[in-house]
């Protein structure tokens, strides 16, 4: 039986992206499935094939000699997930001999034999580099282009989510590989663009948001939401890393503060949802008085795994943590169901959990999203794997509207001198590079890119000078007008004084003549 949903294009090409002609486009969530390998304990419980034993013919049994076989071990665990190729997997297939066996799952049902089709499927032998290149690497093009992006790992506890996202020092995961290539791209573009990188790291533990890089702030942080910045966390600390090594130091410090404990299902179970946000702001160096500033946010999320109390055997604090984890994941599942039902336009219950509020714009807003679904091939995770694959299959129908985050800022007249100084330094730097490129044989033709940058910088400086001249022209006119008005005012004041004198003399003569007439 084949699950619903058509096969889509490669992971790195946004094949499902549609432009609406208004500067935005629609993109479907990319869903990938990774099947973790069996643990050593699980491999010991797998059924072993029968082994033939050859004793050879003897004089006693020469006429009735037959090869005998040792019986196969009793199956206590079996493989329920089989990968067909890079896009198709089968859940709970029949036995290889064609017989249908009862499963070891809690429902004890017969084989389901369901085929699921996803954007990418990674088997048990897949490496961290393969998962990164097929899921997250394509998002870096979006982030450098000004589009928000999110990648999150989803699945039951003990299925490899934290290993996929964080990895280990010997085999790093998505975070390290992403940040390494991000800083490589920033270094490659430093001659043309000025790039600022800031990051924050938080966890959602028992519906309380905590800053993993500022553990002294024990109080929970509050969520804020607006149309411009989306969902933000008030009071969350931001850090400016200088390179990928400093990012690793921040991640190690944050993971040390993350809530983790041992359960029956997982010895190092994550008891909280962890969210790493990387904010990238870009500005061209050869910018004029109007500058296009591009911003983007990359979110990498490690969700806590769903768990059954009967399997994890938790009690007390662990049981309460598991209940909160399941409640937030149930809210996420409800949001996925509502977003997939496009015909009825159902209300999406984002406010049912802090987790869904954080993922609001990743699931249905301005963001390109990748969902890495981690499952176990062991039959002990039968129900968890089945439910995880069902929700991952539904998530393929979710589409987001992505818009490039670009705003134009105009330089104020008070900042003209600073911009002139920046562009003059850029011109001198380019001139030094050009002089260094000249060889001993004489004048060497400069590279077209260097000439173009130098010409652009010179044009920007000339443009600023013209704007400064135009800005000061009204001031000169006002000064001339003020001076002219002052001269006219003095002329009028002088003649007004003369007229007052003449009037006083006339009144004196008039009064003298009036007195003589009366006499």
Walkthrough of the structure:
With 519 residues, the chain is α+β, with helices and mostly antiparallel strands. It contains 13 helices and 21 strands. The strands form six sheets. Strands 3, 9, 10, 11, 12, 17, 18, 19 and 21 form a nine-stranded mixed β-sheet that branches. The protein has a three-stranded antiparallel β-sheet with strand order 1-2-20. A three-stranded antiparallel β-sheet has the order 6-7-8, with helices on one face. The model is unreliable at 4-15, 59-63 and 102-108 (pLDDT under 50).
Question: Could you tell me the radius of gyration in angstroms?
Answer: 37 Å
Structural class: alpha+beta
**Helix count?**
13
Low-confidence stretches: 4-15, 59-63, 102-108
Gap from first CA to last CA: 137 Å
Q: What portion of residues is helical?
A: 25-40%
Overall morphology: elongated
Strand content: 15-25%
User: The biggest beta sheet, please?
Assistant: 9 strands, mixed
The count of DSSP E runs of length 2 or more, i.e. the number of strands, is: 21
Average pLDDT score: 77
Quick overview of this protein structure:
Helix content is 39%, strand content 21%.
Write the layout of secondary structure elements.
Blueprint: E1 18-19, E2 24-28, E3 30-35, H1 40-45, E4 52-53, E5 68-69, E6 81-83, E7 88-91, E8 114-117, E9 120-122, H2 128-135, H3 137-144, E10 149-155, H4 161-165, H5 174-188, E11 193-205, E12 208-211, E13 223-226, E14 230-233, H6 244-257, E15 260-261, E16 269-270, E17 273-284, E18 290-302, H7 309-312, H8 317-340, H9 354-358, H10 360-364, E19 368-375, H11 382-395, E20 399-403, E21 406-410, H12 416-436, H13 448-518
Parallel strand pairs: 3-9, 3-19, 10-18, 10-19
Antiparallel strand pairs: 1-2, 2-20, 4-5, 6-7, 7-8, 11-12, 11-17, 13-14, 15-16, 17-18, 18-21
Helix pairs in contact: 12-13
